[in-house]
Amino acid sequence: MANRLLIVTNRLPVSVQRDEDDFTLRESSGGLATGLRGVHAAEDTIWIGWSGIGERLSRSARQRLDADFAERRLVAVHLSKQEVRQYYEGFSNGVIWPLFHYLLDRMPLQAPTWSVYQAVNEKIADAAARQYRPGDTFWVHDYQLMLVPTLLRQRVPDARIGFFLHIPFPSAEIVRLLPWREDLLRGLLGADLIGFHTPGFVRHFETSVRLLIGLQPLHDELQWDGRRVKVGCHPMGIDAAEFDRLAGRPDVEAEVARIRAEVGRRSLLLGVDRLDYTKGIPRRLLAFGELLASDPSWRERVRLVQIASPSRDRLEPYQAFRRQVEEIVSSVNGRFGTVDGAPIHYLYQNLTREELVALYRAADVMLVTPLRDGMNLVAKEYVASRIDGDGCLVLSEFAGAAAEMGEALIVNPYDVPATAQAIRRALDMDPAERRVRMRALRQRVQRNTVQRWAEEFLGDLMGDDGPARDGTFLWSPGSDMRRLVERLSRLDRLNLLLDYDGTLVPFASTPELAAPGAGVVELITRLAGQPGWRVHVVSGRPRASLDAWLEPTPAVLWAEHGYWHRRAPGLEWASTVDVNREWMTAVRAVMTRFADRSPGAMLEEKTASLAWHYRMLDRELAATRLVQIRQALAPLVASEQLEMLEGNCVLEVRHPVVNKGRVVQEIVRQEPDVPVLAVGDDRTDEDMFAAVPPGGVTVRIGAGVTTAAYRLRDPEALFEILQELLAAARALHREERRP
Ligand code: ADQ
């Protein structure tokens, strides 16, 4: 059976009209619905989302409605009134919407219930996961469903999951304000690909995960939960051919002629928006008023038609906003109207596509001046409708569309006088210039269509080689891991080589705080007490730390990547190699200089290496400093033939002869017949994995590229596995001793 695309959105792409227990489904007109409709029609797809009905239905009514949906390959999630109020109106439109559009003053003082947003996301993820068959792909959309990617990942770990955000992704400083910021970011990270409209939004997202979650995106990819997550810029387009076709239809042409005749000699300005406070309507009207005030002759020469489609009108901020817009309309009309008519024609209505296209074609100047907008499809629709090659677009620099539509007259919508000036310029523009600009805009809009957007997003999501993974995917101690435990537990002799930080214990904010819990100390002691087994702790730490933390255990200790070695408790530490350490003076000077300039960074001095720790450093500054310090150290590293190592929030310089690979070689040399189990979490442990002879087992903790054969999520997962291993070995041992 063919693999399918499972589209997951807040609303299904139809609106439901209810008459008692009869339902009529009508295609809805929003940008997202229109955009994906083509994909839904052409491909083998199922579309999952809220029915759009915010009330309880009788069982039979629901079944009938679900059957109607099923005919269109739609799967409805039914929500209660309470859920709609809290999840959709309250949290999605009341909190995330204004915040992500930088309109902080629109946020309520009392936040609506986050738990309902969570619960509805779970409900929708459940419904989507129920549709899943192996090989299917999920495509989740928009700000109402930001937790769904991870919820789906939990339900269907191997699924391919894409997410696209249709609204802006704001600067990290804005994201930070949200009490649930980490939850939302982690919710998104369940996806294999997270798409945005503009490069700016991609950058903001990457800064946010760096700052708030501590990830290190590189070339628009990051490692999370053992997977590769791609971040991509995929600007959405429109069905340009459809607008082209509509614009040339005789009935639309006739409507254009009618509008033009009605407007007469006047120039026609047009605004078309959902009535939303992000769309910049009040300042646009004020700018128009300024134009009229600047020169009375304009009053006879222009008209502004502002179409506002009713939107979210149950929310108080939207009701207040509507009153504000209508007041400004009356005030401008009162002030500048003449007995022949009012300068602003304001329509609070939904129009048909044909009516819209006729207006687009009739308008001399289109005003698209949102305060913020993810993309703004109206700007593209205007351009696509101009089959005559004429017309002029005034476009806000804060609409995502501005990133692609540089030939428009770009304005700052907060600057009312400058917007008035831009309108004047558009009205006065030489026809030849208008045509040159419009030609370039049309070419781009015709090329970057919504079909291409969907194709490219899905292409990027599918990749050439399936879902992006590295290493063996074995997060949870699954069946393979269990088999491994069983095999290891039967070994009479075993050398367990365990790294310390990030492997036995999780990372702490400063190196000194990473003491092992009592459980870890006890586990090491018991593992080492298993007859024939030996535990080696192989760490980059200095001797003193390992002494302090592991003194009570019988483990063999290797400090500073094997430079120092302590064979058994109570014995002296001995150095294992003799290396030149003269290079350290110069490296120390560089690292100290950078530590002094970077609040939170610090230098750690070991016998034969120097480590620059930056876990506490501001992430942005850390990224800059790392580039600088690498550059500053590079000549020294080259001339002295040193090695520069990047660990987890640490940059270390050492002599290459000292490395964990040598430790493995030494252990294998002494006990060639004893199998090795090596476990570690970072680049220095890769040396260890590389040196493990055939028959040995290697395990990587956490994400990142590795040559290890197995992978576990975190130190806790390792702890569990080691406990299982010990229990199995002990049980076997007991059995053998039984007479
Ligand atoms: P919206 O905020 O809804 O979309 P937009 O991209 O402009 O904004 O799309 C609006 C759609 O509604 C257009 O297709 C337009 O033709 C239609 N429309 C507007 N007024 C209408 C009216 N009176 N009658 C009929 N139709 C009308 C969100 C984001 C945007 C992003 C899109 C798609 O906020 O930034 O561009 O998703 O990703």
Search tags:
elongated; about 750 residues; alpha/beta; 26 helices; eight-stranded mixed β-sheet; binds adenosine-5'-diphosphate-glucose
Structure in a nutshell:
This protein is of the alpha/beta class. The protein is 45% helix and 19% strand.
Write the layout of secondary structure elements.
Layout: E1 5-11, E2 14-19, E3 22-27, H1 31-42, E4 45-50, H2 59-71, E5 74-77, H3 81-100, H4 114-131, E6 137-141, H5 148-155, E7 160-164, H6 172-175, H7 181-188, E8 193-196, H8 199-213, E9 221-224, E10 227-233, H9 240-247, H10 250-263, E11 267-274, H11 281-294, H12 298-301, E12 302-309, H13 316-336, E13 344-348, H14 353-362, E14 365-368, H15 377-385, E15 392-396, E16 409-411, H16 416-428, H17 431-447, H18 450-462, H19 479-489, E17 494-498, H20 518-529, E18 533-538, H21 543-550, E19 556-559, E20 564-566, E21 574-575, H22 584-596, E22 602-605, E23 609-613, H23 619-639, E24 643-647, E25 650-654, H24 660-670, E26 676-680, H25 683-691, E27 697-701, E28 710-712, H26 715-737
Helix pairs in contact: 3-4, 4-5, 7-8, 9-15, 10-14, 11-13, 11-16, 14-15, 19-26, 20-26, 22-23, 24-25
